[in-house]
Design brief:
Length: about 200
């Protein structure tokens, strides 16, 4: 779930950031509305809306061949996590791209580079230095938020621990789940520290 949502979220987030920065007035406002909605509403609410709300549009989804996608809990969770993650990452990318000094753009354009070449060879490498720690921090957050997937019947670590706790009547499974999350996330935390 994390690999799919973060992987697709990076691509979608970068595209949304470009639309916000360089799109026309209408597309820029749509991109702003997208990031505002998905950053301003709880992920749990979004998950419920996608998973339980998709059934309301079943005839339309069947007509375009998407019902098999939206009737599956995992795909609904992956879709929701992706669009939520992309909204956060779009803001990360937007801030990093905007932080590149305007003189860099002007220098690149004066040497004859096109807009795309300027973006690829000048802006993105400079923005990457600023964006990487924030993207990794966002990935850590997504890993922790995957515990919400259990509300739409997706088995995951914390849900399994809660089920084990119900059988044993003690907190050991929950503590073990917390330690497992720590073991999974500690290398990423150290990587973020090194990058910073």
């Amino acid at each position: 779930l994390v690999v799919i949502s973060v992987g697709l979220g990076v691509v979608l987030g970068f595209l949304v950031a470009l639309v916000r920065l360089y799109g026309g007035p209408v597309s820029s406002r749509i991109a702003t509305g997208y990031t505002t909605f998905f950053r301003g509403t709880p992920l749990l609410c979004q998950l419920f809306l996608v998973y339980y709300g998709a059934g309301q549009f079943r005839p339309a989804l069947e007509a375009v061949g998407l019902w098999t996608f939206f009737r599956d809990a995992f795909f609904c969770a992956a879709f929701t996590f992706t669009i939520n993650t992309a909204a956060y990452q779009a803001e990360i990318f937007r801030g990093a791209i905007a932080s590149v000094h305007r003189g860099q753009w002007e220098a690149a354009r004066s040497t004859g580079l096109s807009w795309a070449q300027t973006m690829i060879h000048v802006v993105v490498p400079q923005a990457a230095r600023n964006v990487l720690p924030d993207l990794l921090s966002n990935t850590l957050e997504v890993v922790k938020l995957t515990t919400l997937a259990s509300v739409v019947a997706i088995p995951e670590l914390l849900n399994a621990a809660r089920n084990a706790q119900a059988l044993t009547y003690n907190a050991t499974p929950i503590v073990l789940a917390a330690l497992m999350y720590l073991v999974l996330l500690w290398p990423v935390v150290r990587l973020i520290s090194r990058l910073e």
